Amino acid sequence: MTSVDAERFRAAASRFATGVTVITALDRGGEVCGMTVNSFVSVSLSPPTVLFLAKPGRTRTAIAASGRYGVNVLPDSAAALSSHFAGRGQARLDLRYESTDGLPRLPDCVAFFACSVVRQIDVGDHAMLVAEVTACDHRDSTPLVFFGSRYHHGAGEPALET
Predict the structure, then answer these.
(1) Is the bond preceding 75 in cis, omega lying within 30 degrees of 0?
(2) pLDDT single digits (tens) 19-73
(3) Flavin reductase like domain location, by residue (predicted)?
């Protein structure tokens, strides 16, 4: 089997538009940690189940210890926040959090999911963390979108009326 060049794969994968989330958790000391993720997926309605792919690091370690995480779907005004949690933030942000079901929540998120891990599957250098949703809510706001390796504002106009 031939292997695809990593840069070619990355370029092709960047053509799939995704929403942008920040995964939040509490470490053993009760400090908030987080990571930017665009691999968030809803899996099942019964029971409500989601997953994301976590790279190694502080947030993944915190989730492994507690078995819980929060998913914050970012609004279109939050590109700087996404960059911060991706480790590319230029300026120090004045971060504040709310709490939902005992998990840290970014106050202006479009949607929030409180999650309890039910399964971990190691895949390459990431772990797929499958979780049942224990609480969730949303507000009407436009999400941040990632496409072509850049942030974009808004979800655009609907393609079809239902």
Answers:
(1) no
(2) 999 999 999 999 999 999 999 999 999 999 999 999 999 999 999 999 999 999 9
(3) 13-153
Phi, then psi, of 132 in degrees rounded to 5: -85, 140
DSSP per-residue codes, 111-136: EEEEEEEEEEEEETTEEEEEEEEEEE
CA atoms of 111 and 141, how far apart (whole Å): 9
Distances (CA, A) of 154 to 21, 73, 158: 14, 13, 11
3-state secondary structure of 37: strand
Using 50, 70 and 90 to split pLDDT, how confident is the model at 161?
low
Count CB atoms within 10 A of the CB of residue 145.
Answer: 19
Q: Which two tokens stand for residue 154?
A: 């808004």
3-state secondary structure (DSSP) of residue 22: strand
CA distance 84 to 63: 19
CA distance 120 to 117: 7
93-109 average pLDDT score: 94
Identity (one letter) of the amino acid at 35? M
**E strand segments, 38-78:** 41-45, 48-54, 68-73
CA angle 134/64/57 to nearest 5° reads: 120
